[in-house]
């Protein structure tokens, strides 16, 4: 099977994007892992599949991690999705409606080339994250082999645990992050964010992503970190999030308001591959 693909990135969080509208695509987890492999395939953090909408939206947006598993949401991917359908003439509207496993989102291509995405309303109910606990709280104690750690837990369409740390540079992202990602209290595993508060409008962030490990940036992780920081009284409503891959702007007005994310999306190259 020969596939046409586009390699894209949002702050270094990189994607293989496939047009499932103009070519027939059926991939199994092994094939997805091969495409994502940086030595034997194309290489990416996630594979994004553009499909026709099932309902009243403009498109269906499917996301597969590098391990082959399908996931609910990816913020950096959503920005790349908008750039892709616009650049490939699949839609001329600057704002589109996209179906995801976690619901419909509405990204918008701004005049400066950046993309703003309504990421939806944060979810804190433990059974909806999902997270195993007796009652909902701002923070939770999570038992690890070297002792308990404090986290915030929420969903941005996918599950997130947020740790507040003094210094992201020295945070145990790869070691502790891997333990939290697969902790039994997160039945569907979890993305783990390490947030350093610089001041009330700026944070640094590193994220250990579910099924991918640490990435250069994570859009939903940035949203989750800002929401957690606001709930803890550490941050104002509009925040610049600095990641290894660059900066995102996150805006959240609290309560039942959606989180807005703004950042870049870039096409790296296009090609064909035989599977």
Describe the structure.
It contains 4 helices and 18 strands. The chain is 15% helix and 41% strand. The model has no long low-confidence stretch (mean pLDDT 96). It has helices at residues 29-36, 75-87, 176-181, 219-231, and strands at 2-10, 13-19, 46-52, 59-65, 70-71, 98-100, 103-109, 115-118, 140-144, 147-155, 159-164, 191-199, 202-209, 213-215, 238-243, 246-252, 259-263, 266-274. It has an 18-stranded mixed β-sheet that branches. It is globular, with a radius of gyration of 18 Å. With 275 residues, the chain is mostly beta strands. It folds into 2 domains: 2-118 and 264-274, Diaminopimelate Epimerase, Chain A, domain 1 (Roll); 126-257, Diaminopimelate Epimerase, Chain A, domain 1. Strand 1 and strand 2 (13-19) form a beta hairpin.
The Rg value, from CA coordinates, equals 18 Å
Tell me the overall shape.
globular
Number of strands: 18
Q: Please state the structural category.
A: mainly beta
Topology (elements, then pairings):
Layout: E1 2-10, E2 13-19, H1 29-36, E3 46-52, E4 59-65, E5 70-71, H2 75-87, E6 98-100, E7 103-109, E8 115-118, E9 140-144, E10 147-155, E11 159-164, H3 176-181, E12 191-199, E13 202-209, E14 213-215, H4 219-231, E15 238-243, E16 246-252, E17 259-263, E18 266-274
Parallel strand pairs: 2-3, 4-6, 11-12, 13-15
Antiparallel strand pairs: 1-2, 1-18, 3-4, 4-5, 6-7, 7-8, 8-17, 9-10, 10-11, 12-13, 13-14, 15-16, 16-17
């Amino acid at each position: 099977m020969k596939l046409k693909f586009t390699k894209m990135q949002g702050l270094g969080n990189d994607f293989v994007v496939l047009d499932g509208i103009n070519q027939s695509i059926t991939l199994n987890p092994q094939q997805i892992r091969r495409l994502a492999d940086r030595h034997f395939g194309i290489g990416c953090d996630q594979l994004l599949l553009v499909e026709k909408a099932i309902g009243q939206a403009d498109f269906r947006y499917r996301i597969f991690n590098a391990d082959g598993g399908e996931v609910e949401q990816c913020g950096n991917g959503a920005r790349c999705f908008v750039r892709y359908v616009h650049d490939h003439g699949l839609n001329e509207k600057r704002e589109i409606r996209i179906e995801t496993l976690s619901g419909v989102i509405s990204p918008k291509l701004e005049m400066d080339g950046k993309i703003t995405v309504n990421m939806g309303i944060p979810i804190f109910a433990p059974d909806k994250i999902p997270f195993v606990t007796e009652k909902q709280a701002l923070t939770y104690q999570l038992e690890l082999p070297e002792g308990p750690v404090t986290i915030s837990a929420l969903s941005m369409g996918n599950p997130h645990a947020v740790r507040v740390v003094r210094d992201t540079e020295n945070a145990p992202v790869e070691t502790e992050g891997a333990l939290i990602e697969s902790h039994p209290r997160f039945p569907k595993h979890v993305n783990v964010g390490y947030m350093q508060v610089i001041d009330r409008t700026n944070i640094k962030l590193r994220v250990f992503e579910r099924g991918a490990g640490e990435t250069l940036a994570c859009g939903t992780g940035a949203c989750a970190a800002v929401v957690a920081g606001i709930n803890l009284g550490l941050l104002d409503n509009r925040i610049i999030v600095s990641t290894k891959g660059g900066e995102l702007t996150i805006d959240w007005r609290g309560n039942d308001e959606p989180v807005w994310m703004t950042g870049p999306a870039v096409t790296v190259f296009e090609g064909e591959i035989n599977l």
